[in-house]
Amino acid sequence: MTITVRYFASLREALGTDERIAHHAGATLGSIRDALIASDAAHAEALARGRAIRCALNQQILPEDTPVKDGSEVAFFPPVTGG
Predict the structure, then answer these.
(1) What confidence score (pLDDT) does residue 17 get?
(2) How far apart are CA 28 and CA 31, in angstroms?
(3) What's the farthest any 2 CA atoms get from each other in the chain?
(4) Do 11 and 79 touch, CB atoms closer than 8 A?
(5) Are 72 and 50 in contact (CB under 8 A)?
(6) Domains of the chain
(7) In the prediction, which pLDDT does 38 show?
């Protein structure tokens, strides 16, 4: 399946605005985050498990165990993004 991943605030500065990735069926927001962390050093640092990062699926903040479907938009952002 293919999804669009978007980044906001400080994550956007570190990783860019968005990217399209392929991921296995049955993925969750958390498994997508883990795959991105494993993909390279920049993602590992920006999305590290020790950092407070919020996840959204199709513009709705949801927990990391939420399933993701093909064609979805996943967004990551820090808890406070500002104006």
Answers:
(1) 85
(2) 5
(3) 35
(4) no
(5) no
(6) 2-77 (3.10.20.30)
(7) 96
Q: Which amino acid is at 43?
A: H
Q: Name the token pair of 44.
A: 């590992």
By the 8 A CB rule, do 77 and 7 touch? yes
Tens of pLDDT, residue by residue over 15-67, are 998 999 998 889 999 999 999 999 999 999 999 999 999 999 999 999 999 99
pTM of the prediction? Answer: 0.90
Q: What are the two backbone dihedrals, phi and then psi, of residue 69, each rounded to the nearest 5 degrees?
A: -105, 160
Instruction: Assign 80 a pLDDT band (cuts: 50, 70, 90).
Output: confident
**Signed CA dihedral, 37, 40, 42, 44: sign only:** positive
How is 32-67 classified by DSSP, letter by letter?
A: HHHHHHHH-HHHHHHT-TTS--EEEETTEE--TT-B
Q: Which two tokens stand for residue 42?
A: 């920049």
Tokens 């050093």 — which residue? 41
